[in-house]
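ok so i was messing around last nite and threw this chain in just to see what happens. nothing serious, just curious
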Amino acid sequence: MKAARAVRQLSRLGCCGASRVTAGWLGDARMVMVQKRGFWALRLMRGVHDVVGHALTLGEYATGVRSSRVAASSITASQDATSEKPTSFQQSTLSSQSSHTPSSWHTSFPIPPTADPTSPAALSEQIRSIMRLLPHSVVVCTSTHGQTPRAMTMSSFTSLTLSPTPLISFNIATPSRTLDAIIESRHFNIHIMSGDELGVQVADRFTRGNTDDVFDGLEYDTSKTDGAPLLRGEGIMYALRCRLLPDEPTRGLLKVRDHVIVVGEVVEMIPGSCANKFGLSYADRKYRQIGSVISQD
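result:
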């Protein structure tokens, strides 16, 4: 009897132990499954990100501007939204939409960079990855070719000097209809976008090339800016009326391989919405807002 009772007790203890082991194993399995799902979700997100980037690049080639790129490719090694094609900006999930189709934009939480300059790649790709880690200003440049308005979004805009007159510069990948317009008219406007959804909505419109309907639905004026379209409305904080620098020998245009560096003299500052905000930025193929401040203690 005692022996049978001992066997039954050992049997119950064995079942309990086995159950605990099984429960522990199942818990570990669930955790492994969760980790695997998270890993594959991350891989999927990165895959979608890369597909969009490739689609933008193909769009640039199709429109004939890339030899250039904004948001990642035609943006010269330093500009992710420098070309008329979707640069980034550069830049940019609009490759399947028409250039004038309104898009819905929203502000999200900060997203860590995806660019990895240390991954095995050609030096040009490593430099491109490094430049994606640096924020660039996003502006819209407009000019006119005969009676035809032209425009492009770019991220290579910068102030060159303030004295004796203010000079600005940017670069454009060739061929470019906007560059042709600037060369012919020698006048252009630079529009400073607000760092919000309103600014993005205008800026992103001009990242996909100079189609016939790209200006449809936009308010603009050409009567006071030597023919260059002056964009109006929300999202446009200021505009700079410019002319090509007349100084010899380059007269404001310097060709460097497949890009042209443009130097302009600012003639007038024209207020727009004058929103009390920082301008729009672009980094790692996404539009960005300026956020936190790093202060000294």
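not much to say yet. The chain has one domain: 1-107+114-290.
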